[in-house]
Input
Amino acid sequence: MRIEQTVYICSTRKTNGNCFAGRLPAHITVFVSAALIMILALLCTSLESARVSALRYYMKTAADAALFSLFSEYHSELMERYHLFFLEDNGQLAERAEYYLSYYENPEQDLMVGGANFFRFKTEAVRLADSIYASNNKGYPFQAEILAYMKYGLAETLIDQVKDKLNISSQCGEIMKITKQLMPLTDQVFELENQYVQLKENTEDISYVSERTVQEILSIQELLEDREAQQAKVTELEVQTASAAGLSQLASQIDVEGAKWKLKGIEDQLDAAVFQAEQNRETLLRLTEISEEQFRYIQEETAVLKSQFDPIAAEIEELLPQLSDQLREAAKQQTQTIAAYTQSSGQRKVIVDAVKGKISGLTDFLKENDISEIVKDGGSNDGENSYYQLDDCLTQLKERGENIWPNTLETAEEPLETSFLDEVKAVLSQGVTALVIGSGEKLSERQLEEDQLLSGKMDQEEGSSEWKPDNIMDSLYEIVAISEYMIQVMPSYTDSAAAKDKEGYYDLEYILGSSSSDRDNLGETLEKLLLLRGGMNLIYLIGDEGKKAEAGAAAAALTGILGAAPLAELVKWVLLIAWALTEAVTDVRALTDGKTVPFIKSSSDWKTSLFSGAGKEKILEKSIDQTTPAQEDNTAGMDYEAYIRILLCLMPQEQKLYRCMDMVQWNIRQKDADFSLERCLCYSVLHADMQADQLFPGLPLVFSKLSSSGYRFTVTAERSYLDGIEPIEEDE
Output
């Protein structure tokens, strides 16, 4: 087959020397046409390839822009009030992202523009995956947002100030917590000590009756000798009477009767002495039974005290390496004094073992030896007479009945007077809130609904969407930064007290507490401040030799003896602790009044005093109501907010974050009832399934019949309000 086409061309040719112009036909073969078609196809394919590459970039840009636009819809109230960027997930985020993608699908949308669009596509499906919410992974996204905000707002001087106080504050808090646990045990120790006093009095009675019994036995021995001598005299007179006659016999008979009468008198005295000795023996048995009951009571109470004390002692033992020298000494003193009553080698346990052994031996001896039977029998089976048996009884009674209570083992001379401790406990039992805040002051009555709080879910399983914290752990900077953030954005009791014209809420106290009630959380916070100040005050008292000596003198007066260990030492430490807590009440009261209190006190800063007189009088010379509060011009001290900062820094990070999230969520819900931090997004990945038609391959008609209908792409884009956040990859 041949295709011909006539093409007219102009040519010049010489014929016989003549030139003439003419039109000649030209022919193009099918091979040239096929080549042109192939060139055109190659050109279209190249253009389509370039378009597809550009289309991919265009779709990626569209996805990024759509997700960026979506994240621009952050919660404005959360941002304005708490400076936190989060996007609330209302379940329609994918639809919103698809809406933003539509502006790239159809650039003419809402615009009066025209022109060709080489990058048309259609969105088939949009989904968000790997989303990270504020409460995921124990609140670390929430923490990261706080740190991002505080990145440039935290002064290094503040960190230095807090750093110097955190260690000692932590120690004070720990030692006062333990002291608070030990204080109730002092009641049991004092009760045990009073039992020792009664036991000592009982042993003194035993020793006294034993001494009287010894005297009776000596008297019986003398009467036995007298009876034996008088019996011999009667026998002699009877012999003389039998051999006499007349008046001599009558006189002898009279002498015999006189001698018998005297013998009867001796026997009556002997019977009376034996009866008295037997009565003493019965008294001794009753006294030893009483002692046995006291031993049983002491043993039971000691076991109870030991069961309560041993866990605290173990906790103190673990804590000791972390304490300063002064607090370590204070902790040891408290445990050693109580251990003296519980440990087998303790001084009070030694008393029980020593005295109990002697009482048991005396009881066995008294049961085995009946004085009346010894005198009545007049001798034993081995031929010894009653005199020698009584002599042996006398020797053993002296050995067993004397010095039952060794002089080297001291105890109180009379039952311990505990009115001083009862007085302090009665004051503190009112509750810290009642002690610190006046009864006429109006307090917040806010009660949060626990089912709407995130902190109740702290121990529950976290969702699969977790994030990898980028060094956002409990470093000093982060601890201080998060605590400072809470102080900046959360109101406290002192803020409420300063705003007299309106009722305020205690958000900071809520974070520090464990309740859903403002009142309860305020009480917990004040109690923590009391323990902190109590620990600091105790450190001061330990270092003040004058005040420590004053407490020692008061303890000696209360116990009734000078230097008796361990009781006097225990009472001294109880007095120091009570004194420190009493001073702490005045400190906390001053803080809630908006005044300042020095972190480390000096003698000029001390407000309360201790009376070192008789134990029956009040120990606290000034009641708490009469103490002088801290002065307003004490600029060197720390205010309520500064102490709250320390307490926040000492809190467990997870608990602090969840309690803070509770407050944020609760407060936002007052305007937006459906708000939830669990739906607040800070990171997400957008997956978009897109379809685009072919453009350039459709130009040659033949290729439009052979080519596919178009392309399908899955485009991803990720967006976060924070740097360094990404989903955690699970191990395969």
